[in-house]
Structure formats: C-alpha cells, structure tokens
Amino acid sequence: MYYTYMLLTENNTFYCGYTDDVEKRFQKHLSGKGAKYTRANKPVKIVYKQEFENKSDAMKEEARLKKLSHAEKLKLTL
Description:
Elements: E1 2-9, E2 14-19, H1 22-30, H2 36-40, E3 43-52, H3 55-66, H4 70-77
Antiparallel strand pairs: 1-2, 1-3
C-alpha cells in the first residue's frame, strides 16, 4: 500500500507527500531528514492521509493536492 499525506507545519503551511509508511516518514520529517521544506518549516502533525493500492495513484493524488489553495487544503483537514 501507498499513501498520500499532508502535514501541518508550525507556521501554518502544508507539506504534501507520498510514502509506503506514513508514521515512519513523519518521524523522518521531524528529525530534519524528510525533505528540504520540512527542515525549514517544522511539521506539527499529520492532517490528511489517503491509502492507495499503487505508487502511481498516490503520486497523482500528491500532485493534485499540491495544486490546491491553502483554503482548499484546510477544508480537507476538517
């Protein structure tokens, strides 16, 4: 299984990504080894997670999320 996920950062921005293990990936972000963006914008919590059967579909969802406005991303977390 693969997952698309979205993190909320300390400065109220969102980071979107995909992985096969969301919790492990979140811990990498917290340690500063996850992504350049999350080294500069410390993640606070996982606010969105969706499961997919294959990597391709997870990547497509990640691309879709990245195109959303901040307000649209916020609606997904409620």
